[in-house]
């Protein structure tokens, strides 16, 4: 099937895994002749790749779907597609189609690779398609991927999650853990490197459980060591890893492998052991502090980033103060802070003692203030230092400046030669700001 001059538009919400899924969907659509547009009004296909981790992620999608009514009226041939995690929730496809009857295709996370077939069907008979699977028929390898960047790439190493943290909907919408074969991962990375990619991020909801279910046992540490030997690759990152599963061997692998960036994202969620227990996180406040100490000892200059939820059901002021104090003790290099959002179908949605909104907002503000104070103080320590930066392009706010990240994931904006885009260069920090560093290439 060859389509000419037809355009698709895609919006992506949610985590890096969704970003990578969108790159795969883009690859599929380009494969059947579509070209990408960033202007909704000129698209023949509009795709919303959705997230449902918090309620506000869903609200955004509803808002955007509502605004498509007008476009569908002016262009009845427009094909509207909803995919991603939101569609995997029980009753959601019906809810979407009832509210927005002009949606043409609702496809789940496990069968989005079938989109070209569904698009073809809709074009032929004009009937809308709702097709959601509860699991996939096995990991589909070899799909075309249209990547956003030509120097950094996400490489999913495992799908799904078995942890069932009591607040979280991800295991219900992404299924159980499945690992890709190491040889498929290595071959993908080698092919990326041959195209000039410098940095890869290994993705999974909990990369530490990589290898479970594979015929030959390979741990995540083993995988890091293998990837580290790939010639031409400069940087390896990974996201995300559950603190309960960080083995000493993983820390050792991080320290040993020179390409593995000095950065780990370990979601804390709460500093109170009592709340961590209710969250089903399977580690204590002390375990987390020990982990952070081990990391800082084994890997000089390591950055530790995290996710924190405030307002989990039953969280008292005392529990919250424990979160504040662990933030100060661990001195996170960055932190994503979230207000607890009740997700139907998760155990925590039924917990009594839901925290009132005004208490949540007050705690959220106090937490953000504490985090910002630490992040900004730690950034200021970079004043005058020389750092290695992978140059990603020109700076968002100032086209005459370049931008990139250090190995430990700090954002640097600097003056330098535009020919260095795609390369790793040394930058002297001239002014450290609260959330980024300013400098000049040397
Ligand atoms: N697998 C990753 C997390 C993926 S979800 C990990 O465990 O590290 C990203 C973050 O969203 C979580 O770490 C958590 O902080 C937040 N989150 C998940 N469910 C939430 C909810 N119901 N309300 C608020 N934040 C939530
Ligand atoms: Fe959600 Fe917990 Fe799985 Fe992360 S580890 S995706 S927070 S259930
Ligand atoms: Fe959202 Fe799905 Fe990721 S719910 S956070 S897009 S796994």
UniProtKB/TrEMBL annotation:
GO function terms (MF aspect): tRNA-2-methylthio-N(6)-dimethylallyladenosine(37) synthase activity
Domain MTTase N-terminal: 6-124
Gene3D superfamilies named in the record: Methylthiotransferase, N-terminal domain (3.40.50.12160), tm_1862 like domain (3.80.30.20)
Residue stretches making up the Radical SAM core domain: 147-378
Catalysis performed (reactions): N(6)-dimethylallyladenosine(37) in tRNA + (sulfur carrier)-SH + AH2 + 2 S-adenosyl-L-methionine = 2-methylsulfanyl-N(6)-dimethylallyladenosine(37) in tRNA + (sulfur carrier)-H + 5'-deoxyadenosine + L-methionine + A + S-adenosyl-L-homocysteine + 2 H(+)
Record carries keyword Metal-binding: yes
Annotated positions binding [4Fe-4S] cluster 1: 15, 51, 85
Cofactor binding note of this UniProt entry: Binds 2 [4Fe-4S] clusters. One cluster is coordinated with 3 cysteines and an exchangeable S-adenosyl-L-methionine.
Necessary cofactors: [4Fe-4S] cluster
EC numbers on record: 2.8.4.3
Cross-referenced Pfam families: Radical_SAM, TRAM, UPF0004
Top-rank taxon: Bacteria
Residues that coordinate or bind [4Fe-4S] cluster 2: 161, 165, 168
Chain's role: Catalyzes the methylthiolation of N6-(dimethylallyl)adenosine (i(6)A), leading to the formation of 2-methylthio-N6-(dimethylallyl)adenosine (ms(2)i(6)A) at position 37 in tRNAs that read codons beginning with uridine.
Quaternary structure and interacting proteins, as annotated: Monomer.
Listed HAMAP family: tRNA_metthiotr_MiaB
Stated name of the protein: tRNA-2-methylthio-N(6)-dimethylallyladenosine synthase
Organism field: Clostridium ganghwense
Classification of source organism: Bacteria, Bacillati, Bacillota, Clostridia, Eubacteriales
Encoding gene, per UniProt annotation: miaB
């Amino acid at each position: 099937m060859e389509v000419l001059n037809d355009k698709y538009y895609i919006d992506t919400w949610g985590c890096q895994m969704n970003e990578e899924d969108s790159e795969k969907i883009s690859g599929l659509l380009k494969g059947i002749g579509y070209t990408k547009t960033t202007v909704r009004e000129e698209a023949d296909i509009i795709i919303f790749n959705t997230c449902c981790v918090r309620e506000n992620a869903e609200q955004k999608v509803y808002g955007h779907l509502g605004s498509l009514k007008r476009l569908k009226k002016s262009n009845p041939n427009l094909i509207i597609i909803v995919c991603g995690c939101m569609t995997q929730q029980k009753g959601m496809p019906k809810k979407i189609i009832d509210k927005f009857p002009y949606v043409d295709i609702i496809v789940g996370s496990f069968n989005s690779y079938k989109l070209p077939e569904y698009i073809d069907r809709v074009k032929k008979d004009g009937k809308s398609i709702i097709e959601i699977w509860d699991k996939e028929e096995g990991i589909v390898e070899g799909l075309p991927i249209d990547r956003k960047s030509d120097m950094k790439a996400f490489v999913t190493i495992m799908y799904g999650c078995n942890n069932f943290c009591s607040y979280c909907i991800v295991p219900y919408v992404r299924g159980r853990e499945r690992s890709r074969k190491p040889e498929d991962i290595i071959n993908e990375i080698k092919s990326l490197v041959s195209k000039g990619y410098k940095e890869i991020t290994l993705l999974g909801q909990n990369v530490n459980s990589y290898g479970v279910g594979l015929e030959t046992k390979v741990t995540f540490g083993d995988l890091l060591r293998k990837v580290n030997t790939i010639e031409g690759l400069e940087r390896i990152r990974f996201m995300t890893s559950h603190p309960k599963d960080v083995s000493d061997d993983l820390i050792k692998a991080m320290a040993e492998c020179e390409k593995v960036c000095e950065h780990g994202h370990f979601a804390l969620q709460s500093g109170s052991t009592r709340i961590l227990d209710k969250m089903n996180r399977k580690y204590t406040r002390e375990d987390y502090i020990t982990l952070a100490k081990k990391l800082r000892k084994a890997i000089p200059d390591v950055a530790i980033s995290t996710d924190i939820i405030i307002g989990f059901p039953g969280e008292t002021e005392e529990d919250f103060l424990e979160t504040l104090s662990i933030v100060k003790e661990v001195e996170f290099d960055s932190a994503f802070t979230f207000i607890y959002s009740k997700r139907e179908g998760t155990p925590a949605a039924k917990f009594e003692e839901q925290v009132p909104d005004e208490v949540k907002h007050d705690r959220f503000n106090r937490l953000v203030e504490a985090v910002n104070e630490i992040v900004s103080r730690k950034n200021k320590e970079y004043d005058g230092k020389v750092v290695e930066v992978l140059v990603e392009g020109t700076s968002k706010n100032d086209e005459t400046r370049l931008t990139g990240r250090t190995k430990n994931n700090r954002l640097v904006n600097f003056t330098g030669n535009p020919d260095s885009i795609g390369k790793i260069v040394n930058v002297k920090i001239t002014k450290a700001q609260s959330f980024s560093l300013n400098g000049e290439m040397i």
